[in-house]
Amino acid sequence: MRVIKVKDYEEMSQVxxxxxxxxxxxDGRQNISITGGTTxxxxxxxxxxxxxxxxxxxxIHFYNFDEIPYRNEDRxxxxxxxxxxxxxxxxxxxxxxxxxxxxxxxxxxxxxIKADGGLDLVVLGLGWDAHFCGNLPGTTVFGDKTTKVxxxxxxxxRLLDEFDNNIxxxxxYYITMGPKSIMAAQNLIxxxxxxxxxxxxxxxxxxxIKQDLPATILTLHPNLTLIVDEEALSLVE
Amino acid sequence: MRVIKVKDYEEMSQVxxxxxxxxxxxDGRQNISITGGTTxxxxxxxxxxxxxxxxxxxxIHFYNFDEIPYRNEDRxxxxxxxxxxxxxxxxxxxxxxxxxxxxxxxxxxxxxIKADGGLDLVVLGLGWDAHFCGNLPGTTVFGDKTTKVxxxxxxxxRLLDEFDNNIxxxxxYYITMGPKSIMAAQNLIxxxxxxxxxxxxxxxxxxxIKQDLPATILTLHPNLTLIVDEEALSLVE
Amino acid sequence: MRVIKVKDYEEMSQVxxxxxxxxxxxDGRQNISITGGTTxxxxxxxxxxxxxxxxxxxxIHFYNFDEIPYRNEDRxxxxxxxxxxxxxxxxxxxxxxxxxxxxxxxxxxxxxIKADGGLDLVVLGLGWDAHFCGNLPGTTVFGDKTTKVxxxxxxxxRLLDEFDNNIxxxxxYYITMGPKSIMAAQNLIxxxxxxxxxxxxxxxxxxxIKQDLPATILTLHPNLTLIVDEEALSLVE
Amino acid sequence: MRVIKVKDYEEMSQVxxxxxxxxxxxDGRQNISITGGTTxxxxxxxxxxxxxxxxxxxxIHFYNFDEIPYRNEDRxxxxxxxxxxxxxxxxxxxxxxxxxxxxxxxxxxxxxIKADGGLDLVVLGLGWDAHFCGNLPGTTVFGDKTTKVxxxxxxxxRLLDEFDNNIxxxxxYYITMGPKSIMAAQNLIxxxxxxxxxxxxxxxxxxxIKQDLPATILTLHPNLTLIVDEEALSLVE
Lengths: 237, 237, 237, 237
Hints:
Four copies of one chain form a homotetramer. The first copy, chain A, is α/β, with parallel strands linked by helices. Chain A contains seven helices and ten strands. In chain A, the strands form two sheets. The first copy, chain A, has a seven-stranded parallel beta sheet, with helices on one face. The first copy, chain A, has a three-stranded antiparallel beta sheet with strand order 4-8-7. Chain A starts with a strand and ends in an 8-residue tail after the last strand.
C-alpha cells in the first residue's frame, strides 16, 4: 500500500484528480470503476472541466461498483443516479462509455468486466466502519464476487438517507461488487478525509486483516494507493 | 485467477517453465521469487539447460521466500540449499543475482525487496493442507509480512524430513514471507499436481477465503495463474 | 536494440520460441504478427506441440504482415498459405484468431489493427539485403503504412521461387505493412542466422539508418530484440 | 502517433501537465527527460505547485536531453540552468533526482540512462524547422545517439539568444541526445503551439520521414503523443 498524505479535503481532491487522470490520459481503452457519495464531490468538480467533451477521453469506460435500486419504481438506482449527477452528466460522458451494474445484470457483471479486458482502476471511498462499495461489516465475505445483499430493517434504516428519508423507496436488497471482484482490478485508489474516517484509516495502516473491517482486505492488493488527509490520519502515529 | 489445466506432472513442468521463461525473457531487471521442494524439480530440469550461462538472463534476480535454518550450525538453511541444488548451481546463476532471505536479515526483507523495485513474479507450490511458503495453517495470519514462526514440537517433527530425520538439526523457528508480502508481488504462479493436492486445489477453485486454508487468500490476487494437473483437479467438477 | 547471441540455427529457434511464448503466455488478448519463410521453420516445429489445442492460447490473435496474391487465381496468397502450412494448421489455430491481410483489405489493415488494440509483437525475419516484410530496397519509404507495391519484371523474377517457378502465377503487385506500421507495434523480434545474413546484421549493429537498407530503421524501435547466430554475426567485431 | 487537439497555449499547457503528471503519479522510479525553452513555461507554472515538496514524487528522476555549455566559463550550461529556473528550483526537486547531461559526461549518457532502467518519458518541444532537442536540420542523422555537434559561425549566431546576445559566451559545440537515444524512450510527448510551428506540425501529420525535418522520425515511435493547438494545426486539413 502506497500512502499519500495530504493536508485536507481540497488537497485530497486535487491529488486524487491527478491520479485518476493519470489513468485517463493513457492510450487505448481504460476501464475505470468510480465511487459516488460525498467524498469524491470536489474531485469530480475539478475533473469535470478538464475532461468534458475532450475527444481523447473517448476510450475511457466507466463502471459503477454497487447499486441500491428503488423499491417500487422502475428507475435508475441510487448509485448510478448519483454518479450521473456528480460527474457523468456534467462531463458529458457518452452512454456508450457508461456500463451500469444493476439488479438485472449483476450475475453477469464479473464476466462482462472480464470480457471488456478487466478493470484497470477502481477509485473507492472508505466508510467510517471500514466498508467499501456495498461491503459493509456483516454483509459479504472476502471470497464474494458481485452479489445481492439482503437488507434487514436496520440496514434499510441506514439507507434512508439515500432515499430522502422516504422509507417506502428503500429496497429489501442492494447489489455490490464483492471483495474478490474489487481485488481483481489492476489498480485501486482509496480516498479518505476527515476525523470520521480516522478509525478506518488506522485499521488499514495497522494492516491487520479483519472480516468485520472489510476494507482491511484491500491492503493485500499489490497496487493500492491510499490518499488520506491529516484528520483521517490523526489516529496513526 | 487464471486456471491452466494440464494432463500430468510432465506437462505441468513444461507449461510452468514456459510461463517462468515468459518473465525471464523480458528486458530489464526482473525480480523473481522461486519455490523449492519436490513439485518444481522437473521444471528446473527443463529450465536449466535453457538458461545456463546465457548472458541475456543476467538481469534476472532470484529470491527465496522462506528459510529453515539449521539449529546448531552456521550454514545456509534448508530452502536456499535446496534451491542451489535444484537450480541455482546447475544453472550457474551468479551470486550477485541471488538474494537470500535468512534468520539474520528477515526483518529487512520486505524493505529490501521494495528498494529492489518489488517482486515481478513469485512461483509457488501448494501444500496438501493449502499452505504456501511457510504459511502453514495456524502459523501466520493474512496481514503478516515476512516473519519468524516459532516451532512447537509437532512442527519440528513435521520438519524432520527436511533435515534427514536428524532432530538435532531442526530449529525452534523458521522464516517466511507472509501473505501480505507475497500478495505484494505483481504476479503469482501456483503449480500443483497429484491427488494429494486435490483438496487444496478444490479450496482455491471454490474460492472461499479461509484462514485455516492459507493459500485461499491468494485467489484475491489480480494476477494469479494456477497450473494444475488432472489428478489435482479430480475433486473439482 | 537488445542483441541475443546464439550458437546456431537450432539455438536461435529454441530461444526465439521462448521469447514468442513469453508473449503468448500473458493473460488477456495478445495480437502477434508472425513471419513466414524458411528462417522460422524450426521455431514453429518447436512451438507447435507446445501450443496445439491448448485452451490458454485462445486469447492469442495472429496477423500476417505481407501478402503476395496469386495472379490469376482467387485463392489465398503465398504468405498466409505458408503460415498455415508452417504453423497455423498444425497448431490448430482457430479461424477466429487468424486475421488475414490481403489485396482486398489492405487499405483498412492499419485501422483494423488499431481497433483490435494494436500489435503487441511482430516476429520478423531479416533479408540478406536488409529487407523486412515486403519492404525491399527501392520499394517503400520509412513513412509508409500498409501499402501495395507494384512489381516490375525484375521483382516478378525474384518472386518466382514463391510460385514454384510458375511465372504466370506471379502477380504485378504485392501487399506489405510498411515501416511505419511495423514500428507502431509495441515489441519487435528479429531472427537471423547464417552467413548469408551477415551483411544485414552488420548494418543493424553498426546502427546507421539507410533507406536502401530498410531494416536499419527498426533499430530506432524502443523494444527491439535481435536473436542472431554466430555466422550471422561473423562480420561484427 | 496520437494527436490531441487543444484550443490554445493555455489549454496545451493544462493538458500537457495532466499527461506529464500521469507518469509522475505512477509508483516506483520513473525517469523523465524534460524540455526547456519557452513552450513549456506555462506547463511548469501549473505543475510546480502540484508537485513541490510532495513526498510521493521522490521517485521521479529528471534528465536534460541537450546542453549548450558556456564558452569560457566553468558554469552550468544553458539547458540545465533554464530547467532549474523554470521548474527544478521552484519545485524544489532534490539534486539526487537531477541527472545532468553535459560536455563532460555525454559519451556515457546513453549507458547511464540504460543502467538507470531507461527513460520512461521524454517531453519535447518542436522547432519551427522541425528540430527536436539539439537535432537541427543538418546537424545529426537518424542513427545518432548522444553526441557533440560542432557549431559553425551561422549556428553560433543562432544560439546568441540563449546567451543574452553575448557572442563571447557562445561555444563551438553543443551536446544533444540524438534521434536514436530519444527513440529509445518508452513514451514521447511533443507539445506545439502557435502559427510559427504550423509547418513543422504539418510535416509530422503528413507523416513522411525526412532527414532535413528531423522530428519526422519521431512519428515512427510506437508511443508518441502530440499535444497541439489550433494555430499550430492551421496548415493541416
